[in-house]
Amino acid sequence: MRLGLLGGTFNPIHFGHLRAAEEIREKIRLDRITFIPSALPPHKKVEPPITVADRLEMVRRAVAGNPFFEVSEIEIRRPGLSYTVETLRHFQRSAGAETELFFIVGMDAFLEINTWESYKELFQLSHFVVLERPGTPHALEKFLADNISPDYRPDNEKRRYLHHELRAVFFQAVTSLDISSTKIRDLVKEGCSIRYLVPRVVEEYIINKGLYK
Ligand code: NAP
Question: Rounded to the nearest 5 degrees, what angle is found at the Cα of 87, between the Cα atoms of 19 and 165?
């Protein structure tokens, strides 16, 4: 089993996240993708009154209907900051030896991974799939050599870097959708429409609960 993991603050989830997940599922031949909303992201503030329950519920509604997508509450149930290393340890224990993990992350976030808790261990626990942004110079090779291990070797045909001990790092371009959670929150605050940026069910949830006003 090849299990994709897409962690995020998802404040709120939008079509950029969903389309990237769908394309990566096909390109990397993943069997499933688990969306993992963070309870307390170590790197971001989630301003009240938006609650963890709201962010979780929007993710649930957004992925419902895609048989390859599911949601994990692991970070929401765990007290304290939502460190990815603890999440990957959990999935490695619970998924079993037959399952390979693929943590999906944007290039911007990945290039800061050396600031994450126990970041070297992350590369023992899971493969990474880094979402390339069009026009952004490919800085992965130098980053891996300088920060993770000088022994990562390119395997360009398969768009990945391989290592004799650590897990692989894949890189993939996905359709560029210039949508961000910040933009959506700003639009709502200004009283503008967010239609076609988020699934209809997420839009309705935001409107009905009066979020982000
Ligand atoms: P987010 O903003 O909610 O977004 C989730 C992912 O989707 C990110 O990797 C983001 O990449 C990508 N994305 C956003 N908009 C997109 C678009 N329009 N098209 C394609 N991809 C898009 O997530 P986040 O708050 O940055 O967190 C990402 C993960 O990193 C979470 O699991 C978080 O817990 C983890 N993290 C862990 C630590 C730690 O353990 N210490 C520290 C920091 C983050 P971009 O980053 O490129 O926008």
Answer: 90
> How many independent structural domains does the chain possess?
1
Minimum-distance ligand 1 atom for the alpha carbon of 107: 47
E strands of the chain, at which residues? 2-8, 32-37, 69-71, 100-106, 127-132, 153-155, 160-162, 169-173
Cβ proximity of 128 and 161 under 8 Å: no
Index of the ligand 1 atom closest to the CA of residue 110: 46
pTM of the model: 0.97
45: confidence class by pLDDT, cuts 50, 70, 90: confident
Task: Establish whether residue 114 lines the binding site of ligand 1, counting it when its CB lies within 6 angstroms of any ligand atom.
Answer: no
pLDDT of residue 135: 66
* Index of the ligand 1 atom closest to the CA of residue 181: 2
Does 208 map to a domain?
no
pLDDT tens string 91-116: 999 998 899 999 999 998 999 999 99
Domain that holds residue 141: 2-179
CATH number at residue 157: 3.40.50.620
Query: Ligand 1 within 6 A of 91 CB?
Result: no
| Helix H or strand E segment including 110 | helix 107-110
Q: Whose CA is nearest to atom 16 of ligand 1?
A: 16
